[in-house]
């Protein structure tokens, strides 16, 4: 069989082609023509190849398309499909009766898109029915595609409505972390989020239950205590050390009212448990023993012997009186000692501006020390006749209070960001709480709600603070409660897009406000809340179309955009399957939890790096570099020394190339005990080529029943038998070929060398005769010839993630436009991100009027009804 | 804007757990049959004007029913048949001996321990108090082994009276010789302790959650009016979930309401002494009624307290006045204070008398309520012939309506041993006790 093929786009890219057609004004675009002579293994192989004939049609006027459909397309549907898919029989609940004209297709674009995919893929009509010829199938595919494009895109594409989205777990964690400035991961306790259209940020499926509200409350209470601390609750000490709790070495006598009288030979100390490092107030009470004595001074040293204070002190005053003085001292957390002596001349001469260390003054022998502690256990009995001459000075107490100021390191970094003003506080009462609460809450709520807040709503949150202080709680506790409420508010938990004023006329798409756009941007690129910069740009209404590219660039260059790897790419490429994959560890001992994580991380890092460097998306398939840590490097057999840290390494000495050689992807597309070429092939079809195969027909047994092959048959042989069934052949032919290309890797992505079974055969042929031998060649062929298809898949997935909704048939117009715009530069990843953001679908939305407006509109139509 | 808070709602903003203490403890039939006995010891500082305190009685009988209420005890007239006025008990350990000054510290510290406090401002050492002896033995039967109430804050450190640690002056209940039982002085804190409250309690949490949900559901309502039908469905989901949690809290409040004592307990400080002391008595009544605990102590003031009873026109500080040096006007004022405090005590007895158990016996009949001080004559710091009233029949353990005057210098510890017998929590000795007060 000889075919003449045009290999511009191997697997279909009809939309792109159509877009190119629409945009070009000259004659038909030129494509490379190659003569391809190939004997194809079976008819159904051709089925797929057929889809490769595209793009040579001239520009179609709408009427041409409509006419072509009516004259050619519809008769083919009638002939090929209606036997089963008619109104009466409705096989698979699908009737294709009544799509005579393009207008009939309007509203059924989704169904028709699926028909297109089935026909293109060759899954329909089934093998055991009358089949179209290769040309017929090609023509039908073309007609369906043109018609659909015409139906969907000739009007200005509607941006669609994105349902209010609840923050998912990842977004919640990132949002609160960014909001308060340090990592918080409470959302890990939430139930996992529903996934819609492949991502867990889909507003339509993300639901909310009473349980979630309870979890949100718990998390909010937890966070508010982390981000804001009531300084009153911090450990403080009020350590009274009257002299009967001091330890004394040397001569002394104990008078009334705890007066400890001593002389120049005495060393006295007291011990304190200091709860936290900081500044403390030290209060000394004592005095000279008699009025006659002259210039006695008290010297106080710290435990290093440094002289802290030397102070002349007056006569204590007799009876229970005493002189007192106090001073402030920095103390370190832990058990501290302060030493007291009658000051000597050196003490008196010392200038306290310099550090004067006199360790000798506080040194005593170990025995003396033990004895002093022993004596301290005895309760001293006051001696009313003690000798004032013998003991010229007296100390009554040495108390430590504090810390005098709250040590900053005990407060979270968010403390003073939240508490911008503290109300007056006197004797357990707080005054003028509300204005202070408002001043604190307004900026916080603006950040948390991602928009300006009005006074009325702030006041209600401030009410929680005043309520708390009225109940006798502290202002800080009140603020914690208000912060909790902010974090449970629907304005925080949901991203809701509605016009500032209700729009009665819902016929035109509504532009997002600057703040709504800022949120879309940040949750797309960062999976988190807008930062202060972005929010103030929004405040100034500066997020214009013109500025968007530079804003996107700025955001992509932030480390926060790593979320595109950990959230977007991880879900797109199915890496979360790896978390739950159970390899048969009796056969694959290397598959440890740490290796599993390393595998996932590898793909994320490669993606992030490619995005950062704005590489062509197809490079993901062909890159000869990757990221490994020690464990993964050992697993891959690469030279490496870097331990747990991931580093970029070259793969030039290896035959691994691109993500198709990533062990993670190879693993979760395998069965626990062996590889599955079918699953791997399916993965490529879905995630690289963007052409998911249809589900197998009902009643098909699970893959690879061994009894269909002889004992010891290779997997490939088994699959050959499998494919003999016409019901299976259509899809499996391509799928299996792709999968075989990766057979060089075992079920956990290691290069095979098991010779004893069957020699590994990783060769295959792709539609269009693209032969390959081994995985590296497969990657190279795909990267070279399927760049546009891959770019389209990437764009579709990216758009789905960016919007948080499932794509609709009409979105294809926008997708195709993005792909077309980035084609010239080779479909570079950041370019595509930028174009997605610039698309109207991203910046606008279809507005559904509120019920009130809808009612009002109805009323307007009926002039007789009385308006309220 | 401030949130309006209904105090009753606050009190009841509680989980279902709230009603449990009562149900739990009443769950055993035998418990109901035997109707537990309760003990409470109330302390007032600075002694009393003794001539106005002592009942009028003919001769010097050891035990008589023939006595007349003194002026100070006159407010107890309606409870005359439910009380015993006891004289001649002494705390010898309250006396100076060789420890010098510090009678007020010794007044409070000996009051329920009969033990001698070690004169120190740091390494405090005393002895177990009578309430704690009982609590040790029956405390496991109730939610709280015991409760300690007061009206003035304790001082944590330093010396309060002539070198005695403040712990001696601010506590009458001692768990063991080194550990005073800190007292609750705000009614709300006391209530929360009795009924499972506290800073992080379920009730507190539910109350806060409800006020938070109140605010955010208003937000949701506001938003619902601004969005179209699709978003509305999402916000309705939010709104109904919030509502469901609110209702869940409301349901537990309802259960709570059914099981909870009917009392309003405000948050924070109570302004007047009168309101404060009566709330505390109310709480004690409820604690006994709902069997949260069977053992309680209550300090009307710390030892040597200097409260000014301005609401009865006494502007001078209590302790300062107590050194009256027999000046007539000062004596009259102190007596006025003594009388005023007894009025409140009588209010407490009213409450206890009003509560009947299943067998028709009043709480008062089932209880022993000691009211008194560790000093008799405040002017001279006397520690003998202490002013004491023992109200309630202790479930029939003794007869009431009597005036009892055992021989001079009978250790007060002897009374404690008899009370402990009546509680069925006997001890061999306490402090300087020398035996039982058999005459009781």
Q: How do the helices and strands line up, and which of them pair or pack?
A:
The complex is a heterodimer of chains A (868) and B (440).
Chain A: E1 2-6, H1 14-23, E2 33-37, H2 43-50, H3 62-80, H4 102-105, H5 109-121, H6 134-153, E3 165-166, H7 169-180, H8 210-227, E4 237-239, E5 247-249, E6 252-254, E7 260-262, E8 267-274, E9 278-288, E10 297-302, E11 307-312, E12 323-331, E13 334-342, H9 345-349, H10 366-376, E14 393-402, H11 415-418, E15 424-426, E16 429-431, H12 433-449, H13 455-470, H14 475-488, H15 490-493, E17 494-495, E18 510-511, H16 514-525, H17 532-539, H18 548-557, H19 563-572, H20 576-580, H21 593-612, H22 619-622, E19 625-628, H23 630-636, E20 647-650, H24 663-668, H25 677-687, H26 715-723, H27 726-740, E21 763-766, E22 770-773, H28 775-785, H29 787-803, H30 811-823, H31 829-838, H32 840-843, E23 844-845, H33 851-861
Antiparallel strand pairs in A: 1-2, 3-17, 4-14, 5-8, 6-7, 7-14, 8-13, 9-12, 9-14, 10-11, 10-13, 15-16, 18-23, 19-20, 21-22
Chain B: H1 7-12, H2 20-26, H3 29-34, E1 38-43, H4 50-53, E2 56-57, E3 63-64, E4 67-68, E5 83-86, E6 89-90, H5 103-111, H6 130-138, E7 147-150, E8 159-161, E9 164-165, H7 166-170, H8 187-194, H9 202-224, H10 229-259, H11 273-289, E10 295-299, H12 318-322, H13 328-354, H14 363-366, E11 367-372, E12 388-391, E13 402-404, E14 410-411, H15 412-422
Helix pairs in contact in B: 8-11, 9-10, 11-13
Describe the structure.
The complex is a heterodimer of chains A (868) and B (440). Chain A has 868 residues and is of the alpha+beta class. Helix content of chain A is 41%, strand content 13%. Chain A is built from 33 helices and 23 strands. In chain A, the strands form eight sheets. In chain A, strands 4, 6, 7, 9, 12 and 14 form a six-stranded antiparallel beta sheet that branches. A five-stranded antiparallel beta sheet of chain A has the order 5-8-13-10-11, with helices on one face. In chain A, helix 12 crosses helix 13 (455-470). Chain A is elongated. The relative contact order of chain A is 0.10. Chain B has 440 residues and is of the alpha/beta class. Chain B has helices at 7-12, 20-26, 29-34, 50-53, 103-111, 130-138, 166-170, 187-194, 202-224, 229-259, 273-289, 318-322, 328-354, 363-366, 412-422; strands at 38-43, 56-57, 63-64, 67-68, 83-86, 89-90, 147-150, 159-161, 164-165, 295-299, 367-372, 388-391, 402-404, 410-411. In chain B, the strands form four sheets. An eight-stranded mixed beta sheet of chain B has the order 3-13-5-12-11-1-10-7, sandwiched between helices. Chain B has a two-stranded antiparallel sheet with strand order 2-4. The longest helix of chain B is centred in the middle third of the chain and has 31 residues, at 229-259. Chain B is elongated. At the A-B interface, helix 8, helix 13, helix 14 and helix 15 of A face helix 9 and helix 10 of B.
